[in-house]
Amino acid sequence: MSKTEEKQQVKGDGRSRPIVAVIPAYNEERYIGSVVLKTRKHVDTVIVVDDGSTDLTAEIAEAAGAVVVRHEGKEGKGTALSTGFRRIRELDPAAVVMLDGDGQHLTEEVPQLLAPVLRGEADLVIGSRYLQKRGGVPRHRIWGHWFFTTLTNLLSGKRTTDSQSGFRAFSPRAIECIRFSSEGFSVESEMQFLAKQHNLRLAEVIITANYVEKSKRPVVKHGLLVLDGVLHIIGQYRPLLFFGLGGLALLLVGLIWGGWVVIIYQRTTQLAVGYALISILLTIVGSLGLFVGIILHSVRGLLLELVGADREAGRAG
Fold first, then answer.
1. Of 14, 37, 244, 301, whose CA is between 20 and 30 Å from 74?
2. Is the pLDDT score of 199 beyond 60?
3. Is the whole model's pTM more than 0.85, yes or no?
């Protein structure tokens, strides 16, 4: 699908609504120019969020024709996307595509990501490296992607084959609904929680992985950062599951352990003090975790209702 054909599918309020690309970037001077130039063939506007780069990323992106928004210091990918989305909302786009600035994503695949959004079939389209075996993904990355995808699918309630893909497309509804709390690389996982929360239609398309150079950060460190972010997201979006399930498990173990203390006493007429203390501790901590999960779940539901009411009032006004 050409850029002209894409635009012809967009019907707005009598004027042409733009197709926008957003690229979060940090020290990508080697590739950002070519990525911007190639992306511009398929979209109307390219927004590059320079996340405090110490090289010429911003200058090269601007020279290549991108609208550059700069952060004074490095704030993380999630924050960069939040900045980009705020700028995008000012443009009232027909569709938005997100990609990395390191050349990993093939810009010629941008139209196939945009297609389900432009046809009105999806609100969030994920470019998946695992819908079809194409190779090219390093083995250690495959295992990491599998782990985080399984964890995110299980806890978010939305299923994908590649939860960590940074090549995505969004509908206007998704752009309006999505507000990130993640600052770092767990932002892709957060999108699945947000898709579930706002009942966004999710689709996947096949993309090609193009790992042109070695990762800028150690794989283990990167994985731990993502894991930390995902655990934070679970606590925020699924508090009953995060606190309640663990609390219930500890409570049950404490009660079973207490039953064993009773059995020992019946057999020996002696109180196993150590076991009894462990049972009491597990029961108390488990009960607290369960009640905290229930309370936070209720509070979150109330806050969501208040936010929804505020938005409806704003639209009515």
1. 37
2. yes
3. no
DSSP for 176-236, written as a single string:
HH------STTHHHHHHHHHHHTT--EEEEE------S--SS-HHHHHHHHHHHHHHHHHH
C-alpha dihedral sign at 205, 206, 212, 217: positive
Class of domain 3-237: alpha beta
Model confidence band, residue 306 (pLDDT cutoffs 50, 70, 90): low
β-pairing, 45-51 vs 95-98, is unpaired
Sheet hosting strand 95-98, strand order edge to edge: 67-71, 45-51, 19-25, 95-98, 168-170, 124-128, 202-206
**Position 216: which residue type?**
K
Q: For 54-68, what is each residue's pLDDT tens digit?
A: 999 999 999 999 999
| pLDDT digits 0-9 by tens, 111-123 | 999 999 999 999 9
| CB neighbours of residue 235 within 10 Å | 14
The pLDDT tens digits for 288-303 are 888 877 776 677 666 6
Query: Whose CA is closest to 81, among 96, 65, 64, 63?
Result: 96
The amino acid at residue 183 is E
Among candidate residues 99, 183, 165, the one with its CA nearest the CA of residue 127: 165
Where are the domains positioned within the chain? 3-237, 239-316
Instruction: Report CA Rg, the chain.
Output: 24
Beta strands 124-128 and 67-71: pairing type?
unpaired
Cβ pair 105, 166 in contact under 8 A: yes
